[in-house]
Structure formats: C-alpha cells, structure tokens
C-alpha cells in the first residue's frame, strides 16, 4: 500500500465520523502537504474497490466513507448531514430475505432524523 493510500485509510479508520472526500483531503494535506486532491479521490476509489472501506452514497450530499465494511444501518441528520452507525437488530437481513423469498447479499439502510444538536438550534437552545 502506498504511503498516500495508507494515510487516507488511517484517517478513515481512526475517525468515528463518516467523512466526505473533501474532509479526508483536508486532513491528509495537513500531514502530507504535497498530496493532490485527485490522489485522494483515486485512492478512495481503490480502497472501496478492494473492500477496505465502504462508500455511502447520500441523497443531495457528498458521499461519505465508512471504516466498517459489514452491512449496517446508518442514522443521518437531515439538517447537518452527520452520519452515525446504527446497530442492526438481530435477524434484520434474514427477516427481509424470508419475507421476499430471496437471498440477500447486503443492504444500504439509512434512517433520517434531526440530531439533538440541530434540534437544539432550531428551538433556540
């Protein structure tokens, strides 16, 4: 793995947040000032392709990157865009598979809400 790809992977792996490519680029540039934006995007694509990280496509927002590769739901704030991992109830995939009579290979479940910080801002807290 190249130094650049290792740096990008480490940024994603070390953060509880699901960062955008631009956030990852900014953090990587702080450690490696000569790093080009295209290098970050290209390496993110390679890390996704190789199954090292997951790319979360977001409606009307930049994609985010997740260190946790196994399928799991996400909780998305509709105001600030923060994305959090959400533990999946036991048997989630099995229940859906049985209901439809299919063999599921994965899922991408996003549940939307307004996070406590944004709710507080709306109510003047």
The biggest beta sheet is recorded as: 3 strands, antiparallel
Tell me roughly what share of residues is in helical segments. Answer: 40-55%
Q: Could you state the order of secondary-structure elements as H and E?
A: HEHHEEEEHEH
Round the mean pLDDT to the nearest integer and report it: 91
Assign the structural class, choosing from mainly alpha, mainly beta, alpha/beta, alpha+beta, or little secondary structure.
alpha+beta
Strand content: 15-25%
Number of strands: 6
Apparent shape = flat
Beginning-to-end CA distance, first to last residue: 47 Å
- What ranges have pLDDT less than 50 throughout 5 or more consecutive residues? none
Structure description:
The chain is an alpha+beta fold. It folds into two domains: 1-68, Arc Repressor Mutant, subunit A (Orthogonal Bundle); 70-125, Dna Ligase, domain 1, CATH 3.30.1490. Helix content is 42%, strand content 19%. It is built from five helices and six strands. The protein has a three-stranded antiparallel beta sheet. The chain has a three-stranded mixed beta sheet with strand order 5-4-6, with no helix packed on it. Helix 2 packs across helix 3 (37-49). The longest helix has 13 residues, at 37-49. It is flat. The mean pLDDT is 91.
């Amino acid at each position: 793995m190249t130094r650049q790809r290792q740096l990008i992977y480490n940024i994603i792996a070390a953060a509880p947040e699901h960062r955008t490519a631009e956030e990852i680029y900014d953090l990587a540039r702080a450690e490696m000032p000569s790093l080009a934006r295209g290098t970050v995007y290209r390496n993110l694509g390679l890390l996704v392709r190789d199954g090292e990280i997951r790319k979360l496509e977001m409606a009307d927002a930049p994609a985010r990157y997740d260190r946790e590769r196994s399928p799991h739901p996400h909780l998305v704030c509709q105001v600030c865009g923060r994305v959090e991992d959400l533990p999946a109830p036991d048997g989630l995939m099995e229940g859906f598979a049985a209901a439809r009579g299919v063999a599921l290979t994965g899922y991408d479940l996003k549940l939307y809400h307004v996070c406590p910080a944004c709710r507080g801002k709306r109510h003047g807290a």
